Amino acid sequence: MCRYWFHHTVILLTEVVNKVLKPLVKKDAPMDAYRQLFDGILSQRLAPGTKLNEVELTLLFSVSRTLIRQALQRLQLEQVVEIHKNRGAFVAAPTPELAEQILLARHTIELAVVKLACQRCTVADVQQLQKMIDLEQSAIDQGDMATALRRSGEFHLQLAIVAGNQPFVHALRGLISQTSLIITMYSHGGGNACARDEHSQLLEAVKRGDEQQGQELMAHHLGHIAQGCDFNHSPQVANVKGAFAHLNS
Amino acid sequence: MCRYWFHHTVILLTEVVNKVLKPLVKKDAPMDAYRQLFDGILSQRLAPGTKLNEVELTLLFSVSRTLIRQALQRLQLEQVVEIHKNRGAFVAAPTPELAEQILLARHTIELAVVKLACQRCTVADVQQLQKMIDLEQSAIDQGDMATALRRSGEFHLQLAIVAGNQPFVHALRGLISQTSLIITMYSHGGGNACARDEHSQLLEAVKRGDEQQGQELMAHHLGHIAQGCDFNHSPQVANVKGAFAHLNS
DNA sequence: GTACATAATATTGTATACAATATAAGTGAA
DNA sequence: TTCACTTATATTGTATACAATATTATGTAC
Predict the structure, then answer these.
(1) A182 shares a domain with A163
(2) Among residues A180, B136, B206, B233, which one has the fewest Cβ atoms lying within 10 Å of its Cβ?
(3) A positions 177-216 inside 8 Å of B (CB)
(4) Do B83 and B190 share a structural domain?
């Protein structure tokens, strides 16, 4: 009996520790470093071309170089970071030629995504997408264009998730991130103001299951991104410490 | 004068060392481990679901776990390997549902690739592609279907390279590898015998710049892959030592 | 001062050591 | 035996130490 009581108490404690305490304490360090860098790049705090020094990141994120290098490699394979052997990692800086290829690839894939989304979108999906549009708009209202840009990308990615095609999601994750870099480098502003309307109209078409209309709207939407860019412009390059200044406060 | 002679001799020696000796000696270890594993999987020596033990690979390839883990992470991001936290890495084993998604994604992307290839294919490109078809056929003639399958994939990838769209190349690299896994798991043979003819016809259309015909042929070709599979079949699982037995000879 | 070669430093690449977790083997009670 | 539990082992996760390479600083000849 005594043993039983003891046993169950231990079970209880184990549960408490695993399900309550651990989530509060756990750091999931590798994901952290990756996410911080990813967000830093997509929020335009890290400009294209910026050198990413490993020990510097080590100090900023309080993890070893092992995890920093893991994060950088992952970002490289997502095409958001370039790693040159023995030279180090840099925030990717797509050339105009590559930018054109990226937008064409998005055109191809996202037209297929919209079609699938029209077929499979549920009521819950629509609500989720609507919420993301609202979040993007609220960022725009606050004048925080960097956040708006990131949330715009999340809307497109969510559409691919709704479409239910894992390879499309995987490919688009990289392409959308690269598009953010392209906009950071080449956009001459203004062109992004109409995004909300376009996203809303797109969602309406998807809700109705109107594949034809949805694809046309997506094509226009992606076309506007290209139109909003001036590929003769050259980008500015920021430094790492400035981009993560908020971590040292 | 004496110094000059010395100086130039050093230059010469440096050049000799860098340009002649190093390429012969160099190992490029990380790429090696990655390539070996990649080829092992695509050549069907490593069956889907196989556990990839890190120290075992360490001994096989004579590099530290650092590089093994690098290679595994890269393979994971190419969707050829699955890594479960604290559980280890496994050769990916796409479910029938994922297989369907993969083939649909290929359909979407490769139709666009063929179109671009029709527009941009040069004489040199045609020669290169023809050579790859011949290599694939010679593997078939020798009854080495594993090599044939790998070379078939390389043909498709080369087509994307000819098309000149980097994101398409990047996405297809993973999708083609995954298709190899799908065929390994679910193919009931026979369906692949007609591959050569289809690749040849495809190349003819591309050479003529006939986008319409090229896309139709590609669509049929990809359709045949799906038709050649039986998604009720369950896969066999091999062990690592057996797959790399040739390294220990 | 400039150009070049050399030395010092900083940065990345790889291997190893230690920690955390999961798996397998062993132990005792019903 | 079978089940729960403990202990031992194996495996993965992370940090650090060392090696190789690149970058910067210094010195010397012209």
Answers:
(1) yes
(2) B233
(3) 178
(4) no
Question: Is any Cβ of chain A less than 8 angstroms from the Cβ of B104?
Answer: yes
Q: Please indicate if any CB of chain B lies within 8 Å of the CB of A168.
A: yes
Q: Within 10 Å of residue B85's Cβ, how many Cβ atoms?
A: 7
Q: Which one of B70, B104, B170 has the shortest CB-CB distance to A79?
A: B170
Instruction: Please say if the pLDDT value at position A183 is more than 80.
Output: yes
Q: Which domain, by its residues, includes B88?
A: 2-93+235-248
Interface test with A, best of B109, B110, B175, B182 (most A CBs within 10 A): B109
Q: Are residues A131 and A101 in the same domain?
A: yes
The enclosing domain of A122 has a CATH number of 1.20.120.530
Return d(Cα A43, Cα A233) in angstroms, integer. Answer: 20
Tokens coding A134: 């609202």
C-alpha dist (Å) from residue B59 to A66, B44, B68, B87 = 22, 21, 10, 20
B77 to A79: CB separation less than 8 angstroms, yes or no: no
Are B51 and B23 within one domain?
yes
**Is the Cβ–Cβ distance between B119 and B111 less than 8 Å?**
no
Residue A15's H or E segment, with its range, is helix A2-16
In the predicted model, what is the mean pLDDT of chain B? 85
Pair (B220, B240) in one structural domain: no
What 3-state DSSP class applies to B47? coil
What are the tens digits of pLDDT across the range B2-35? 333 333 333 333 344 334 444 444 467 778 899 9
> What is the per-residue pLDDT across A21-71, written as a single tens digit (0 to 9) for each?
444 444 577 788 999 999 999 988 999 999 999 999 999 999 999 999 999
| Spatial CB neighbours of B212, under 8 Å, sequence gap ≥ 6 | none
What gap in Å lies between CA B183 and CA B99, rounded to an integer? 10
CB distance B171–A166 less than 8 Å? Answer: no
Residues A87, A187 within the same domain? no
Tell me, what CATH number does B20's domain have?
1.10.10.10
Residue contact B168–A105, C-beta within 8 A: yes
Task: Please tell me the total count of domains within chain B.
Answer: 2
Question: Which of B18, B68, B108, B177 to substitute to test the interface with A, most A CBs within 10 Å?
Answer: B108
Would the Cβ of B54 be found within 7 angstroms of any atom in strand D?
Answer: yes
Check if B102 contacts A (Cβ < 8 Å). yes
